[in-house]
Amino acid sequence: MAKASSKKPRDIAPIDPMPARVDPCLATLVDKPPKGPDWAYEVKWDGYRIAVHIEPSRVRILTRGGYDWTGKFPSIADDARRLAVKTAILDGEAVVLDDNGRSDFGLLQRALGRLPSVVEAGAIVFYAFDLLYLDGRDLRRLPLRERRQLLEPLVAGREGAIRLSEEVQADGDEFFRVACAHGLEGIIAKHVEKPYRSGRGEWWQKITCKRRDSFVVVGFEPSTVPGHLGRLLLAARQGEDLVYVGGCGTGWSHELSRELRSLLGGMATKTPAVSLRRKGAVFVEPVLVAEVEYRAWTDDGKLRHASFKGIRGSADEARIFEVVPTSK
Asked: Cα–Cα distance between 30 and 172 in angstroms, integer?
């Protein structure tokens, strides 16, 4: 009689090649949470979307655009080496938490060294919310429910740099109301029976307490206070062109106003990136992307009640708002 194999199912399963990179699944913006037993909810984190690749001889941390930022997240890379896996790809968000436990994009930027800060890189936490690959198995074909069952034993209960983004089975409307009341950015709804699909789709949905997108900084207006910033001038993509969508004049501290004014002053150009004439404006090379929170759009395609939240990155790193609505 043949002796029964002592190997675990994971050991004898067909080996799938480990992807060098996976384009992330992106949530579609909707007005209200979906309903039904097949939907689960999570907090919408305010940080950088990254994928942690754990390989036999190294750990790689890749941004949504495919840039290798391993060196920017040393504490996450170190913690990844301690996980009880041989190979894995974890999908999630890198954040810095404020004193109230809320993710703060501005603090994250300072921890990454984009602006002067007392926040250290070690303060960055990675909240894992999906598992795409594990010990030779490509999990993307599995429903989210099964992927979460494999993810949770790996990271649940940890207090280091890698933690679990908790999934909530609740009434979506109530969870959204509570999230907004606590000053969070919003929530994410995910269909638990769907596989992982790269790109934007209806199986992941985001509901934000306020609208928030990335726009190219094309200029600024100086403040009446010497050396400070008065207003940022912003643009969105329309096809191959940039189109002016208005500006924002709030969202920065006195210190940050001076830092941004100095930074942008070094990027001044005589050739505007958009068709705009504005007395007193200083136009800059369209290389920086600002994260902006706003309430709505005006009928002529301008941002309403816009507030600066941080520099998202350079124009070749960040996803820039691509459609200019005529009304919202």
From this structure: 13
**One domain, residues 141 and 280:** no
Structural contact between residues 290 and 234, judged by C-beta atoms closer than 8 angstroms: yes
145 and 254 in a common domain: no
Cβ-proximal residues to 96 (8 Å cutoff; 6+ apart), any chain: 47, 103, 104, 107, 108, 110, 111, 119, 123, 124, 125
Residue 180 exposure: Cα atoms within 13 Å on the Cβ side: 11
- Nearest one of 13, 31, 298, 29 to 173, comparing CA atoms: 31
Please check whether residues 47 and 176 belong to one and the same domain.
yes
In sequence order, the 6+-apart residues with CB closer than 8 A to the CB of 67 are: 317
Percent helix, strand and coil across the chain, each to the nearest 5: 20, 35, 45
Query: Cα–Cα distance between 262 and 268 in angstroms, integer?
Result: 11
Q: In terms of pTM, does the model score above 0.85? A: no
Which residues, listed in sequence order, are joined to residue 164 by a DSSP beta bridge?
128
User: Are residue 297 and residue 250 in the same domain, yes or no?
Assistant: yes
DSSP bridge partners of 54: 59, 88
**67 inside domain:** yes
Tens of pLDDT, residue by residue over 151-206, are 999 999 998 999 999 998 889 999 999 998 888 889 999 999 999 999 999 999 99
Contact 40, 167 (CB under 8 A): yes
> Of 208, 238, 263, which one is at a domain's C-terminal end?
208
Residue 183: what pLDDT? 82
Q: Is residue 173 part of a domain?
A: yes
Q: Both 47 and 73 in a single domain?
A: yes
Provide the domain count of the chain: 2
Which residues carry out catalysis? 44
Helix residue ranges, H only, the chain = 9-12, 74-80, 105-111, 144-155, 172-181, 254-265
Query: Which stretches does DSSP call E strand in 168-227?
Result: 186-191, 199-208, 211-222
